[in-house]
Amino acid sequence: MSDLFPPFAPDPNEPRKRLFKPVPVRVIIPNIITLIALCLGLTAIRLSFEGRYEPAVVAIVVAALLDGIDGRIARMLKGTSRFGAELDSLADFVNFGVTPALMLYSFLLHELKAIGWIAVLVFAIAMVLRLARFNVMLDDPNRPEWKKNFFTGMPAPAGALTSMLPLYLSFLGFSIGPAAAPIALVYLLGLAFLMVSTIPVYSGKTIGLRVPRQWVLPIFVISVALFGLLANFPWEMLTAITVLFLASIPLSVLRYRQLERTEAQGAAPVPQPVSPSESEPPPAA
Prior knowledge:
By secondary structure, the chain is mainly alpha-helical. The chain has one domain (25-261): CDP-alcohol phosphotransferase transmembrane (TM) domain (Four Helix Bundle (Hemerythrin (Met), subunit A), Up-down Bundle), CATH 1.20.120. The chain has helices spanning 25-49, 53-76, 82-107, 114-138, 156-163, 165-171, 181-196, 216-232, 234-267, 276-279; strands at 150-152, 200-202. It has a two-stranded antiparallel sheet with strand order 1-2. Helix 6 (165-171) runs antiparallel to helix 9. The chain is globular, with a radius of gyration of 27 Å.
């Protein structure tokens, strides 16, 4: 048997085979941001069931901010990946579909018992359907460039932030009791409809990367003012942002229809002028 399996010494210069291909750090960083946002969403569920709604809302707002920058950081670092896109969609479903609906159920909709829970299910399912449609539309190569400036239906972070309007109002001192539960239910179902609808909502994704020089200083001042207002009057600002966003949807629809008509007119064939020789009948023989 010793002849069949002779002893040998391994070659120290032989390169070791790698089981897995190394992943660049620029791909990992955006996914870490997404996971931090997911942790915030899950923590918001715990805080809401402990009755600590204010920090729960803050956690969702921060998760929405992180959701807005993780994709931009991935594109800036050239670290986009299919894995990151799928992870982002799953995190959005939890943060903006499951968490706000459970928070509203714990806060108010539990007063309606089964009917309130059905509204929670409808909102969460509408969110996952909206995210699935968004992922499919990203792969459409024939989509016109101007349509990329509009979402089809209400985007996920906006759906979450607007759904918590009853919480904002309660933080401002308004009495949100059991009598307001049916109103909150209708409001939540209306947002679910907006998410799965084809109503265009302005996104602003194709705004130019360069800003005119005369607008630089005003933008700095406005940004600082908005940050100061949000830090000192968070619930007033979130309420105002929610109302203004909902009021802007009809304007988005009008702008979308206008651009759609312009595209249709530009694609229509232009009639060619007819020469006199072609318009006149041939002479009789």
